[in-house]
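Inputs:
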Amino acid sequence: MKINLLSNNRVLLALRMVMGGVFILASVDKIINPSMFAMILKEYKLIPDILVPLVAVTLPWIEFFTGVFVLADIFTQSSALIMIGLNLVYIAGIVINLVWGLVHECGCFTIFGLNEPIGGFSIARDIVFILLSLPLLFYGTNEFTFRKKEKI
Amino acid sequence: MKFEKILSIIFMAIVISVFSAFIGLFFNIILPNNLSLLPKKEIKIVKQAKPALVEKKQPAVKVPPKPVAAPLPKKAPVAVTKEVVKPVTAETAPVEGKKLNLEQVKKYYDTGKVVFVDARPEYAYVELHIKGAISLSASRFNLQFEAVKDKLDKKALYIIYCSSPTCHLSDLVAEDLAENDFKNIKIFTGGWDEWREAGYPVAGLKEKGTVSGED
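Outputs:
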């Protein structure tokens, strides 16, 4: 009998905890400091200046809610899809900037003083996040159900 | 996975994104240090600040020092410091305390013997910064510090600023400087936003000759 480790409930639970936590932690500082995040977004030179404030205000909240939903196991597959999409965009942004020779702040995790310039580590980390999100996309649930407590 | 299932996952992903974006927009309205979504407002602030700069410059006899990083070319990796004037120490400075407000910072600025350190990203520094400040961004501190460390006086007083009171990058740079035996460090809590709104001297690529040009 073949057992798929990635579809194991405990593995999925662990992945949800990790990815949910990561996305919430990544978003908090950006939510509190939108002007700081906007400056970092400008450094990437990928978004038109007029759209930078809009992205700086909304993107952290998308990260936050996908993290919360994954933690709470609500619409996990959709949230995992967003996580993968965001990480792909981040990787593309970092690679383009590195190709252009622009090395600046990543803006990925500014909480806890984790504040590094873009580079190979940022790309590798985002790839790991994508790999961790894939099992949630394929084997997670996309339901929103309230469980009733059983009365004794 | 069935096609319908895939569609429902994508649909919900869009719904979650839109929902989150609206929450973000709403939160931005109630956030004290919110971000203006309209670029015109930003320009207005700069225009209002300019006359104030001219007015305040007239009575000012003391000119701030030039411990300055030259503005970066767009793709330059590190901001380079030209020269550093020997500044006052914390003992001789006009105000006390590690965290400084705008008024205190201005007093230090007027002495002309303090080194201002910009902890924001280099891009923001190159655009506009406190006139006379050097750039030591939190993320690239090591690289930038290597380039300027020989010109910095460890006994001098350094005032570090970030963008706003909630920005903690100045704390990170303060720690880094302290690790490199810089003792006299103070933090301007209000940061760049307060300084600019007050109309005090600024420099950078976006400040073309309104006060005294680039530093």
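Remarks. The two ends of chain B are 62 Å apart (CA to CA). Chain B is about 40% helix and 10% strand.
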